[in-house]
Write a structure and sequence with these properties.
The protein is mainly beta. It has a single domain, classed as Porin (Beta Barrel). It has 2 helices and 8 strands. It has an 8-stranded antiparallel beta barrel. Strand 3 (about 65-80) and strand 4 form a beta hairpin. The longest helix is centred in the first third of the chain and has 11 residues, at about 35-45.
Length: about 190
């Protein structure tokens, strides 16, 4: 872009940011458990994780750009295990980057992306006088897309974004969680 005349650079470059609500549906691998009833019990306890999503995209051309995506998910549960009341909390944060393709329109702007990076998860549990905690880093990706609907020249509503959201931990026992994520929020066009 350094070699493009400034008037053309204004037409091609764009910068946008978004802030959104995000819902993560985790898919716990059966290999972590000894039988299918344990898998189902763990899935029932964990359920879906609510959180936030934010990011930015810089346009290289009118339809191609590089995106940065950040998210956080949180869950807190109180359950009875082994005859004792247990409180557990978990949190996960992801930091993803990659290409994004957008079909520019007067009002509708569908997009697709392939984002890759790292996720950091931590958990803490307390049962009676005993407590434990741990954390892990893992490869994370978001492969999917969505639709933005412009409501103003500088604002759009992200009516929906759906991503396949795999998380792969290769430490000791290699495990992949094939999750899904839904995002909805607001997009601000800082330059078009």
């Amino acid at each position: 872009m350094l070699f493009v005349p400034s008037a053309d650079a204004q037409k091609l470059s764009r910068f946008e940011v978004h802030g959104a609500y995000s819902l993560l549906h985790p898919n716990l691998p059966g290999s972590l458990f000894s039988n299918s009833s344990e898998v189902q019990q763990a899935r029932d306890i964990l359920g879906n994780l609510s959180g936030w999503n934010g990011g930015a995209a810089v346009g290289i051309t009118n339809s191609f750009g590089i995106a940065a995506d950040f998210s956080g998910y949180y869950k807190s549960v109180d359950i009875s295990l082994f005859g004792s009341s247990t409180h557990a909390s978990a949190r996960a944060h992801t930091f993803l980057f990659g290409p994004e393709f957008t079909k520019r329109g007067d009002r509708l702007e569908p997009f697709g992306h392939g984002l890759f990076g790292v996720g950091h998860g931590s958990a803490k549990a307390t049962s009676g006088t005993e407590s434990g905690e741990g954390s892990k880093n893992a490869f994370t990706a978001a492969i999917g897309g969505g639709l933005d609907v412009k409501v103003h020249p500088t604002i759009a509503i992200r009516v929906g974004q759906l991503d396949n959201f795999p998380v792969h931990n290769s430490e000791s026992k290699s495990v992949t969680f094939n999750n899904f994520r839904f995002v909805t929020g607001v997009v601000f066009y800082l330059s078009r």
